[in-house]
Amino acid sequence: MARITMREAISQAMWEEMERDPNVFILGEEVGVWGGSYAVTKGFYDHFGGERVRDTPIAEAAIIGAAIGSAMTGLRPIAELMTINFAFSAMDHIVNQAAKLHYMFGGQFVLPLVIRAVGGGGRQLGATHSQTPDAIFAHFPGLKVISPGTPADAKGLLKAAIRSNDPVLFIENATMYQVRGEVPDGDYVVPIGKSTIQRPGKDVTIVTYSKGLEISMKAAEELAKDGIEAEIVDLRSLRPLDMGPVIESFKKTNRAVIVEEGWKSYGVGAEVSSRIYEQAFDYVDAPVVRVAQKEVPLPYNRTLEQSALPQPADVVAAVREVL
Amino acid sequence: MDKAKLLDLYYQMVLIRRLEERGAELYQAGKIGGFMHLYIGQEAVSTGLIAARQPQDRVITAYRDHGVAINCGIPANQVMAELMGKATGISQGRGGSMHMADVTRNFWGGHAIVGAHMPLAAGLALGDKYAGRDGVTICMFGEGATNIGYFHEALNLSKVWTLPVLWVCENNMYGMGTTVERASAVSEIQQKAEGYGMAHERVDGMDVLAIYEAAKKAIETVRSGSGPRMLEIMTYRFRGHSMGDPERYRKQEEVKKWEEHDPIGVFHAYLTGNKKATTKALEEIETRAKADVQKAVEFAEASPEPGLDTLFDHVYVEEV
Asked: What is the average pLDDT across A59-69?
């Protein structure tokens, strides 16, 4: 067990998997000589060489399309999108190809493919570079969509993703690369599609993932000062979505707040709250409340941007509303 | 090419033609659904091209894929069953007309989003290069696909990475109802290969042997490690873009003029004129192809529908 950053955990997962399996390789913009725009693949090019750490042209459809094609031949590509905002340039290949090729040809094509993409706001990058469009991708059967909230999950889930024979979108948050946490050494794998309790409590259930976990943890500390114990469920996987721990917690607390960084409309919170009503209606003591990004393209100005993003205070207020 | 192979090519072309003619009837009768794009008129292209490949060479194409499926060796039974959406279809009734593939025969589909399969082709070729295999990926696409970004991204990547791809443009001169001149900055598609530093050649798409010879040379050159190349094969579809095409964009005289160069007729004349086959032998092939189509229709009709309990099969490889 070592205390390392999210960046190091992601890097470690890929390094170990590349050492373990020669069919694993990385492709993307600036992943090689540069060492990755967010330095996640620093040192990889020198160690593994240009055949396995492939710098690509700025051509997202070609990156994801070539990753898919090579996966169909049995390789295990990790395609890095410099940011998830560029995924829209490869939308056809993610949605029409990766998510469907296994099904549409009666199971003949197998796509052991990982797409790593970093998203999230809060860095004054303006509207086009600050999005959290996770829910869009989670809409499509055939894709697996995961997004870790801790360094340990980042390592364990990425390893699971690389070993999965299905296409996996692995979403990172750029403001969390420096987050530190205990990460098991060596071969640590976290199964895809399992939610987990990150903080036990009895008064209210907070359902969240990724950046929302960081926000919710801060909110829970505030609430604890007033004797309110929030239980935090981390979804970790958006598809497949594991509602087990959510429902179990909700049956105990009878109250839920859902926290996500993306927009509220048609979002992860909408899906989770609907499932709570469907699966635990008799246990509802208060309407489920969603905390999410305000419905606006994120502005550049720091004050405006922060006002549009969900904050711990918003979560605290939401919890007080449901209690 | 020896006589047996020549006759086999003739058989394949006739089989595709007869199978699609029956397909059109079955479509009108409501037994085939969805979109269906006929290859009639273009049979020489994939027949000549695929005859020139080695078993390790991959083929990937767009949605006009029935002929390619036959040429890659998928039995007519499974093609027809897929058209009818049956469990015995090559894609188990999941894909339909536009989505046929057979991994065991190195046929990688049947792709319905224009141009989107081209980056996939680059990836297939990367798979072979990475593993040190000597396979060549043959990627077919229409001239209409050369105006979409995927084409340019894929060609560029294939050249930058020296991937073993043979890009094959089937120029049938219409993207649905829009002529190549109205849609493409250059109507001679092979010029686009110049922009990516690729060797290219234009070939008569009504002459199966010309296509075979050009493809043979091109495939082996790509195999030698010299990087991607392009063939532009000039052809013409005798039927509409799809089954629901009113054909207001072209005159019947134009179609008739092209039908005088019917690739099956051209090949028939070559075979009899050069004493490669007798008229009687070719008639026998015709009879055999018709019988095989009839058997395929009977097989498809008698095949079961996919079970409702299989609806969720193949969404994922692993249980979720």
From this structure: 98
